[in-house]
Request: fold
Amino acid sequence: MKPNRHGRLAIPDLEIEVAILDGWVRFWYRAELLPLPADLQWELDKAKERTEREHDRAERESERADELQRRLEEAERALARLRGPSPPGPGRRTNGPKPGKE
Reply:
């Protein structure tokens, strides 16, 4: 078997090429160099770290949103207390003068 124009040995049925690169046996699939297992593991570890950081950030944001909602509800209750009793709704009479007759 002779190397192709890139200096690699081709396995046409698998669309793979093999060669020594920097002292390592390396593989190319459809002319693209495949990463080494250690490189794949490094990328996987970094992706896991990013996922964990994003999960932690999302959890903190959720807790913050819950706290803000609690504070809003508390402020609405305090405002309602300051305003006093609710005014009568439609159809409810008060002891005051009737509309139009003052």
